[in-house]
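User: Sequence for Alpha-1,4 glucan phosphorylase below. Tokens please.
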Amino acid sequence: MNNLTKADLPVPAPRSSRPEILAEEIIERLTYRIGKDAKVAKPHDWLTATILVIRDRVIDKWMESTRRVYETGAKRVYYLSLEFLIGRLMRDAVSNLGLMEEITNALSSLGVDIRVIAGLEPDAALGNGGLGRLAACFMESMATVDVPAYGYGIRYVHGLFRQQMADGWQVELPETWLAHGNPWEFERQESSYEIGFGGGVETVGGHDDQPRYVWKPAERVIATAFDTPVVGWRAKRVNTLRLWSAQPIDPILLDAFNAGDHIGALRESNKAESLTRVLYPADATPAGQELRLRQEFFFSSASLQDILRRHLQQYDDLTNLADKVAIQLNDTHPAVSVTEMMRLLVDVHGFEFDKAWDITRNTFGYTNHTLLPEALESWPVPLFERLLPRHMQIIYAINAKILVEARKARNFSDTEIRSISLIDENGDRRVRMGNLAFVGSHSINGVSALHTDLMKVTVFADLHKLYPDRINNKTNGITPRRWLMQCNPGLTSLVRETIGDAFLDDAEQLKPLDQFARDSAFQQKFAAVKRANKVQLSNLVASRMGIKLDPNAMFDIQIKRIHEYKRQLLNIIETVALYDQIRSHPELDWQPRVKLFAGKAAPSYHNAKLIIKLINDVARVINNDPSVRGLLKVVFVPNYNVSLAEVMVPAADLSEQISTAGMEASGTGNMKFGLNGALTIGTLDGANVEMRDNVGEDNIIIFGLKADEVANLRGDGHDPRAVIERSRELAQALSAIASGVFSPDDRNRYTALIEGIYSHDWFMVAADFDAYASAQREVDILWANPSEWYAKTINNTARMGWFSSDRTIRQYAKEIWRAG
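Assistant: Structure tokens for Alpha-1,4 glucan phosphorylase:
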């Protein structure tokens, strides 16, 4: 019927970037795609119409990028992550297309303020914190440095919860980011795959044949793809974020419905939809654990089926898979992919087990993000076997292969064998997903130099002994497009005016800014930009919370997931001690300071939620005490997300990176703050070590125990009570909190929390307190000397370019993926 060849197909003409043409197109989309007259259109209508116009230009680049991969046969990278904290996309796309001025002028001609409508775009609720934001930065950088890539994840309907405060307590509410649709995404019904659960395994084949195993799942759901284009800087490449949505095979059991069982008739539909409804369902119950494992297998299986289908469509053969495909596991959440790849290769495509293992191992890479053994996922063997019976068989087969190799070739001891086994035999038998990801990958990377070194001697010590060439380091990075150019346009303009535009394409070209660090005129301009950003944050806090902030005060900010090892508790205890000192010594020259916190606590993490309540209780007392004379204010800003970070990061004077040494894998908030001209106070943990090396010891405030000192102190026996008794400020602060000074409605609210510091102090809050308090007084002295302060913060901005995610991705591409 249609005899046109691909060569005959018309190629669309390049779309105009003239503001008047863009304005015409926005009106056209408003009229014919949204059905609104410009006279009655609401801001949300203008937002959607503008996105559709931008999206058309993205699609042109997207299709060009896709065609190029097929024509060149380039290796594709597939990034599997349970989180992608992408934030708002409109400004990101417009900026990377180089159309910010044109779109702004087009909207202005129509009487629309781009800042107003951009602020209406919901944050995609696809992540929790650093892990998901890193994945988002990596996706943008892969497009920027021209690495053909797909990101694979789950299209959560609600994602992580929306955080509200009720009398200072965290309350979790559904995040309804998809309530009004998502104009960036494209549903791909043709890219749908069946995903199975449960059932049993049958053996096919006689005595003379090699037995073949066939999994017969008892349940099946459909995974359907939704694609979002990811634009690189200057639109060099547009890659794809493919998210999976779950749908039932039979949406409604009609017989049950007609029989009057209206709820039961929708049982299968509700069960399928629960897979993609919420990020990180609470796993404190067996049902929660099962749902989490179902989610992980659901997106892993759909992604691998899609990867193999695309590869076979181009090459007709899977033997060259590792030459044309690189799959990166972002933490242990997609580790079940190792067994699913083996099942697909052996059971579906007929490969011998050993050949399939070679292909699998050479295709996968694994990024580890934690040194906490409890954070390396593991699943009860009965649950895993019931839900994924064939995969359990494959795990036993892989385990036998690894343990035999370790015993015979390396003469491993029984203790070492137990350590590397995929099955944890201590107590209830569990499948170790970290070990599975390790043995199933040719590359295992840490995310900072310290973290990588510690991996080799802690959580993966014996696996490293077995495979000494696999562990390598790839220090994390952040995209400077979002975390400087977009979130801090004032500083970007100042830097361009001062040293030119080279840094826009290579963040390491910020280094010439160093020569202006002590230039008084430049310092004044730098300080003016910082103050404007602080005014913006002050306005946000005033509008959301009714709290007035003084932008002339030091903005001391800690924003990250609430966890005991990140030590928001250390920060707020020192704040209480400072409060006591200000009241006790009013004659001293105290520097005005605003302590700002933001972050979410996991719903089942009692102590983390209690720390949020403590921060709010302390804030209520301090903010209403006239004796502090405006010298100290405490604010917990609810519902931390990417958009809030984009306001808070540029406004920070002091960046709190105070995790217990040896427990933070890397951190990326530290990089964002430093790039935007904040001074870091922190421990030698994660990427803080490399930050110190890059910005210089004089331009960062380091305090506290080092990782080896923490380990030694824990091993030798730490006596926190004796430490507390030697520190008057700490003892008084702990006593005030424990006795109910900040919780008069419940004087015992914090008794157990404080007793944990006295009894074991696992996170070294007491051990590091005096060093932390002393470092904060050093910060006060610096703040009192503006020229010295701004010299250091300008040095931070100038020397943070190495922490660009472009550098990180180039290292992954060259040293792990061999792509691009």
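The chain has three domains: 1-73+96-122, 74-89+124-475+810-817, 480-803.
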